């Protein structure tokens, strides 16, 4: 049972799950914002266009009311939400993936092992030059650089 709980904990703490949770919360807030916009501005506009007043956007047959204005309101809400998601999320991601596929956007520059070793060698040489000015450290056996011996790396 303990490995199952550990696996669940690892699943929850992965970055993708947290990113998804944030996206859901932001999506819900955005949907509420668009819903409020359509209820506050578009629904009255639909009422004015369809005859105005409280009964605008309602078609009555006998005692039954068909609230087609409410349906049009929800349809507009859906189209606005889809349009914003497309232009704010989908299109930029598509462009980014196309650039990566074309090789325009290189990945992070990772030095090779040879470059890292050369950098370490240069740092060690710089440290040695710094100690040569004050004289060799006690107990070290260094050959003079001009003295016909083998040169170091």
TrEMBL record:
Keyword Mitochondrion: no
Pfam families (UniProt xref): MscL
Keyword field: Cell membrane, Ion channel, Ion transport, Membrane, Transmembrane, Transmembrane helix, Transport
Gene3D superfamilies reported in the protein's UniProt record: Large-conductance mechanosensitive channel, MscL, domain 1 (1.10.1200.120)
Principal subcellular localisation of the protein: membrane
Topology in the lipid bilayer: Multi-pass membrane protein
Transmembrane segments: 20-42, 71-90
Subcellular location, record wording: Cell membrane
Region (Disordered): 128-153
InterPro entries: Mechanosensitive_channel_CS, MS_channel, MSC/AndL, MscL_channel
Signal peptide residue numbers: none
Function: Channel that opens in response to stretch forces in the membrane lipid bilayer. May participate in the regulation of osmotic pressure changes within the cell.
Quaternary structure annotation from Swiss-Prot or TrEMBL: Homopentamer.
Family: Belongs to the MscL family.
PANTHER family xref list: LARGE-CONDUCTANCE MECHANOSENSITIVE CHANNEL, MECHANOSENSITIVE CHANNEL MSCL
Listed name of the protein: Large-conductance mechanosensitive channel
Gene: mscL
């Amino acid at each position: 049972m303990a490995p199952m709980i550990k696996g669940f904990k690892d699943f929850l703490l992965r970055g993708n799950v947290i990113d998804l949770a944030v996206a859901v919360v932001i999506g819900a807030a955005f949907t509420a914002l668009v819903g409020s916009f359509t209820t506050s501005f578009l629904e009255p506009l639909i009422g004015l266009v369809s005859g105005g007043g409280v009964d605008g956007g309602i078609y009555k047959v006998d005692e039954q009311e068909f609230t087609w204005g409410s349906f049009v309101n929800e349809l507009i809400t859906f189209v606005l939400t889809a349009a914003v998601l497309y232009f704010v999320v989908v299109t930029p991601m598509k462009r980014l993936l196309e650039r990566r596929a074309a090789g325009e956007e290189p990945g992070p520059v990772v030095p090779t092992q040879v470059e890292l070793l050369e950098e370490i060698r240069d740092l060690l040489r710089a440290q040695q030059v710094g100690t040569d000015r004050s004289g060799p450290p006690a107990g070290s056996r260094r050959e003079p650089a001009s003295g016909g011996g083998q040169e170091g790396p």
